[in-house]
Amino acid sequence: MINEIYNELIKEKVFGKKLQNGLEVFFLPKKDYVKQYAIFAANYGSNDLAFKLKNEKEDIKVPEGIAHFLEHKLFEEPEGNAFDRFAQLGANVNAYTNFNITAYYFTCTDYFYDNLSALIHFVQSPYFTDENVEKEKGIIGQEIMMYRDNAEWRVFFNLLKAMYHQHPVKRDIAGTIDSVNSITKEDLYQCYNTFYHPSNMALFIAGDLEAKAVFNRVEEAFAQLKIPEADEVKLMYPQEPEDIKESHVEESMQVSIPLFHIGYKDRPLGRGGRELIQREAAVGLLIDIVFGRSSELYEELYEAGLIDQGFGVDYVCEKDYGHVIISGESKAPIAVKEIIDRKILQLQNEGLSRASFERIKRKQIGENLSYFNSIEFIGNSFITYHFKEINFLDYIKILSETSLEAVEDCMQSLLKADKQVISIINP
Amino acid sequence: MSKLHTEEIYEGIRLHTVKTDKFKTSLININIQRPLKAEEVTLNSLLPMVLQRGTSEYTTSKEISKKLEYLYGAVLRGNVKKKGELHIIEFSLRIADSSYIEDKSLWMSAVELLNSLINRPLLEDRGFKASYVRQEKSNLDNRIQGRLNDKMQYSLDRLIEEMCKEEGFKLYEHGRQEDLPGIDATNLYSHYLRVMQDSPIDIMVVGNMDHSAVREGILKGIDFKEGSRIAPSQSRLIAAPSKEKKVLEELEINQGKLSMGYRVDIPYSDPLYPAMILYANILGGGPHSKLFIKVREERSLCYYIFAKLEKFKSIMMIGSGIEADKYDIAVEVIGQQLEEMRKGNISKEEMTNAKKAVEASIKSIGDNALAIAEFYYSQVISNPFYEMNALLEKVNKVTVDDIVAVAEKVSLDTIYFLKGRE
């Protein structure tokens, strides 16, 4: 059965259906859009390094970077390369791997259904050989080297490595040169078979298309594939202490001015759903009020010449980990940290102003609305929230219902001095 | 989406509107045309930074931000960009569409804020507020030095600097450090007055409003000064040297960044220009391209490689990240692909793939308001003007012979290589 959710505020609707093989499929109609878009994603990312299968005694541990390696290799096909097929159909295809998700997507302006079945087909048909696995090691090696020269990336990962003791979010998404070199064809098949079952995946489609046809064509594409029964898999994450590992890390690189990331480690909820999105919305408002462009803190730092327009803040809220990250460039990162510390203490004592709370809420409602201009942005967000058991269309409603009290609670529980880490890259 | 509607609302000031109800927001882009010259590049770059610091109504950035937040997260930004030998000062405003927000005065409030920002700066004595200018000079100084931080872009910028030594195009869009000491609140303000009076201005508006309504709002909300606005001249094309230049630079990095610059003797006005778009696409426009297949897939020499065109200069750049000791082989394999193009070794499939890719990217412009504004602005300042469909038609008519004719006019000018210190 196809169900339908309509959001009045943003005037968008999403159709959804769960297929027999367990795959959840979603479709968002976008009238008059020239482009069509589909994203097919596995609830599987670089964090998933240890798991247990139902019929195996031993836990299975896999090399760092394997989810990303798999993403590269799925494009390989016996008759060549999946890129070729999309090129013939005028589509732009690509993929990404992050900590939690591996996603394959395309945009096109013609032959949508041919592209769609090509997407489903190549993601559901692995073809790994010793030779093609070997060849990829050189390419991924260059990708790792590229990130090593990226100061933004380094300051970010140094922060995570200092914040977390055990959690795999501290590991590089692409792995290390050594871990990548150790990956075999067998490792890839094992992870593929474990995590790429349709019941562990989701498919989201957007464009000026007809709902019935979309769902019919998806089912037709799967009818041509042999899908085995899903294996029961239990993911194993190490026990992560609540405290941070180190509060201060520095490194040198050839940059013109120091880069900094200041993070606060959050206490994870341990589950997805409504509570998670409520927390995300409340913290989202909090950090905008405290660190945003109209905040006293931003003004003080900017007037003192300690930050520029690149200063920003972000919150990551997953089921099993979370953190706030404040980032920027500064000639004196420690001075930035001290001003932040002082201001947060002051706000924790005095509370937040209702006027700024209401204003920032208006701002974020307008921002959320603007996200719906881009079908790629919608799809990407929809899939990300879906795996956290949240419907992305609900976000704007939850946001408007968030209270100042909830935001202040987050300020007390999250912005704590003993959960703070600073990472600096010096010239 | 309606066709572009253009009207000269004052002498030298044109309003261009595209009406569409596809988007949740509407967009106003004000493009001020300046010549790209050493004398003013840094002044131009500093202007939007200082203007965003305060206006006579909203005296601090914080007050401006508060107003924008209150207007449902309107976004207002000023920036500069290079278009060949033009330096464009751009102010861009995005605001929620009134069919989603109950407040019907939203658009007009936003236009008034935009006007305040560009026409009513905060002044003291006979210039801008001195402390704002001082601070933004320091921010600009950091930004120019900060070029070094993104090695991929830095390597392409350095290529252009070396390759276009004798042309205005060599200038970094954010200006030169050495100009900063000579700039103060007074001379920057005089420059500002000149810019607002003498420069051709194009206002691009994309949103769910009729041209006449937009026109009325702009005429009512924005004060333009009278002046004689004369368009600066665009660039001439320059030939490559008979023997290519090679520049090597060392930094503390792990991966070498290879950038190769080519001159293509085909100006935008040349009927062969659409073939040049296809040429670059077949060579390095994505995973179906010769460079991707030969350099990455077959030889595992890199993770990324691309060829891209600089429309107003008819320059093509190839960029890739490689191991430093693979320099010779990478340059050789890249050279072979250009040779293949010259020989016309282009399969039917390569040709159709490239045409489809270019077609999809031109059509996709219509789904992004910023891209629509950017495409049309780029069109209205070039000659000839192509509507999207007209450009598409020309691209689709290109033959392999046309590509070979383009290839004959492509010559290597400079190789820039950034490598790690040993």
Textual characterization of the structure:
The complex is a heterodimer of chains A (427) and B (422). Helices cover 42% and strands 21% of the residues of chain A. With 427 residues, chain A is an alpha+beta fold. In chain A, the strands form four sheets. Chain A has a seven-stranded mixed beta sheet, sandwiched between helices. Chain A has a five-stranded mixed beta sheet with strand order 13-17-14-16-15, with helices on both faces. In chain A, β2 (12-18) and β3 (24-29) form a beta hairpin. In chain A, α3 (112-123) packs parallel to α8, α9 (274-291) packs across α12 (354-371) and α9 packs across α15 (404-414). Chain A is globular, with a radius of gyration of 23 Å. With 422 residues, chain B is α+β, with helices and mostly antiparallel strands. Helices cover 41% and strands 23% of the residues of chain B. Chain B has 14 helices and 13 strands. Chain B has a six-stranded mixed beta sheet, with helices on both faces. Chain B has a five-stranded mixed beta sheet with strand order 9-13-10-12-11, sandwiched between helices. A two-stranded antiparallel ribbon of chain B has the order 6-7. In chain B, a hairpin with a 2-residue loop joins β6 and β7. In chain B, α9 (290-298) packs antiparallel against α10. Chain B is globular, with a radius of gyration of 23 Å. Classes of the chains: A alpha+beta (427), B alpha+beta (422).
- CATH-defined architecture of the largest domain in chain A: 2-Layer Sandwich
Percent in strands of chain B: 15-25%
CATH class annotation of the largest domain in chain A: Alpha Beta
- With strands numbered from the N-terminus, the spatial order across the biggest sheet of chain A is 1-2-3-11-4-10-9
User: What does the largest sheet of chain A look like?
Assistant: 7 strands, mixed
Distance between the termini of chain A: 59 Å
Fourth-tier CATH superfamily name of the largest domain in chain A = Metalloenzyme, LuxS/M16 peptidase-like
Radius of gyration of chain B (Å):
23 Å
- What percentage of residues of chain A falls in helices of 4 or more residues? 40-55%
What is the CATH first-level class name of the largest domain in chain B? Answer: Alpha Beta
CATH superfamily (homologous) name of the largest domain in chain B: Metalloenzyme, LuxS/M16 peptidase-like
Low-confidence stretches of chain B: none
